[in-house]
Specification:
2 copies of one chain form a homodimer. In chain A, 44% of the residues lie in helices and 20% in strands. Chain A is built from 8 helices and 9 strands.
Chain lengths: 207, 207
């Protein structure tokens, strides 16, 4: 029974686990789309308001905070970033699944505000694999890599708050598992079953 | 994270929805196997004890009832049939998924005894389709078909107790959805997360 309302998927996992690539795979299904964040930082060249970000003033951002309109928000280098709840809900109601690629702390904020969100944790097969992936990028110093690995273990400690674990060993298999999770979530018996029952009852009476 | 322990899947749905065929598809994965019922009826030619059924005396059956060793049991034409809990648990502990093709009443009994069982309801796309499938068999009278349709609607009324809905319109898609549900269930964050966390912590300390 395909439900009309979409679902919010929070995709988290340590840096280097390949969650960005998995999200890209999921976005190939046009029922799925990325959440658009609101930010107070200035737009960079080519960035489109409403597509890359919602660019707003600090005053506007704080108004959203005050009326509780963020699923999560954080400050990075004096700029505010947040996921506006009303925008996400509007898209869920249109039947879209919204994906949110966010760190574990943000994921837990989302779960607190919207308990029906589905939280997926992307894990590396091992820390050794994570290390070699980070080293392979060749963009970070050894010190930064050590910090990331230590942060990874701290994030994994919160895995109990998540709903699903996807180990990203072979990308195609991990993406396939994530797709299976979304299919299964969509097949869950809805909280309100009367519309399902009525469909068959009415057909019986009509016959 | 593939969990070692298997899961019990209850597959229910009105007669004619094709749940038997879906189960056969699932059994192609050799991690999945059918549950074996215990019965007091006499073995038919070719039936193997422990494979088709566990054939027991009425006394033995009633002993199992008394010590609460049935996930569900019922009487059909003076014979008893039941699903022995200890046998199912033994197979789950060996990492097998156990499938139970059973009616909705039986499914609810199972859920009461083993709340962690995953209940999948197979639905026909419509009663009209169900009717034409039943008529297509050519084995039942019109009266029996009417009874089955009416029973189908009564079963569907209990759908709120189930976990997932699989609409069997195109068999291959329905079987694929059932497989996705099993994959997703296997990716659920386990209740005890310490073994998962420890794996990464130990690797960190070892490094």
């Amino acid at each position: 029974m395909s439900q009309n309302r979409g679902k919010l998927y929070v995709i988290s996992g340590p840096s280097g686990t390949g969650k960005g690539t998995i999200c890209k795979e999921l976005l190939k299904d046009n029922r799925n789309e990325f959440s658009v964040s609101m930010t107070t930082r200035a737009p960079r060249e080519g960035e489109v308001h409403g597509k890359d970000y919602f660019f707003v003033s600090k005053e506007e951002f704080l108004e959203h905070v005050e009326r509780g309109n963020f699923l999560e928000h954080a400050t990075v280098f004096d700029n505010y970033y947040g996921t506006p709840k009303d925008m996400v809900i509007k898209r869920l109601e249109r039947g879209r699944n919204v994906l949110l690629d966010i760190d574990v702390q943000g994921g837990l904020q989302v779960k607190a505000v919207m308990p029906e969100a589905v939280l997926i944790f992307i894990l590396p097969p091992s820390l050794a694999v994570l290390r070699s992936r980070l080293e392979g990028r060749g963009t970070e110093t050894q010190e930064v890599i050590e910090k990331r690995l230590s942060k990874a273990v701290n994030e994994i400690k919160l895995i109990g708050e998540y709903d699903y674990i996807v180990v990203n060993d072979v990308l195609e298999e991990a993406a396939d598992l994530a797709r299976s999770i979304m299919k299964a979530e969509n097949a869950k018996v809805p909280e309100k079953v009367m519309p399902v029952i009525r469909k068959y009852e009415q057909e019986e009476k009509g016959e």
